[in-house]
Amino acid sequence: MSLPAPRAAAPAPAPAQRRLRRSLLQLVLAVLAALYISPLVYMAVTSLKTRADSGSSTPQWIPGPATLDAYREVLGSADSPVLRWFLNSLLAAGAHAALVLAVATPAAYALARMRFRGRTLIFTAIVATLFVPPMVLLIPNFLIVNELAWVDSLPAVIVPGAAGAFGVFFLRQFFLTLPWELEEAAELDGCNRWQIFLRVILPLSRPALATLALLSFLANWNDFLWPLYVLLSPESLTLPAGLATFQSANNVRFDLLMAGAVIASVPVLLLYLVAQRWVIEGVSRSGLKG
């Protein structure tokens, strides 16, 4: 019985076809990038317009007389302390991100690298809390914050949510990708569990830690509803909540509103540009792809 003839391999695409595909892909990516960036560009352009030009019904991508009057008025307003709101948000988001790392890192390490009875059940219960709508927790969290006398203070927006399930889940997925041989070698060198965690696991987990810190910073920075509940005085507001009150007072001043939006966007963009490499590596190694 004769064997069937081997199937001929498909011909490789010609160099011209590869260049055409690459060009089409780059064109599609350029169009998508323009669609995503255009609102940010128009926001920045509008913040540089005069009051009359910003309210014009005809879109103007290039401001006639570019001016910084909107920024001077926003930052110099006595009724709306935007600079104070900015500093409050910066402090609250930074402290919240640090607290998330301090809580989630050891918990995720224990669930990923240590063997003990009930580990799977504990992890399942933690992940199950991700399905609880945040709105359900507004009143319980407010009652707790009120009992701690944190109302109208920054700890009210820093501490709640710091022990969330996402950080534990995210870091656990990353810790599972680390080779076990590293811990075994450290144990042979005389390291205890705490030394392994500090000297071996944490240095290798910088991409995941940077990613979680950035995501936690963004979540706290963009939080709008919770600060409105617990921050009462104008001086204690964070930037999203403060800009909401600022918008209600200047609903026809598009130049002022866009200037405030630019101020709120710049730190986030700079932080992402700095941590971009670590974020991409941390997400890809944690299995949380698109």
CATH fold-level name: MetI-like fold
Q: Helix content range of the residues, please?
A: 55-70%
Q: How many structurally independent domains?
A: 1
Q: Rg to the nearest angstrom? A: 25 Å
Superfamily (CATH H level) name: MetI-like
Secondary structure tally: strands? 0
Class derived from helix and strand content: mainly alpha
The total of helices stands at 14
Low-pLDDT runs: none
CATH class term? Mainly Alpha
What is the mean predicted local confidence, pLDDT?
84
Query: What is the overall silhouette?
Result: flat
Structure description:
The protein is mostly helical. It has a single domain (72-286), classed as MetI-like fold. It is built from 14 helices and no strands. The chain has helices spanning 15-47, 51-54, 69-75, 82-113, 119-128, 138-147, 155-158, 165-175, 180-188, 193-204, 206-221, 225-230, 239-249, 254-286. Helix 4 crosses helix 11, helix 8 runs antiparallel to helix 11 (206-221) and helix 11 runs antiparallel to helix 14 (254-286). The longest helix is centred in the first third of the chain and has 33 residues, at 15-47. The protein starts with 14 loop residues before the first helix and ends with a helix.
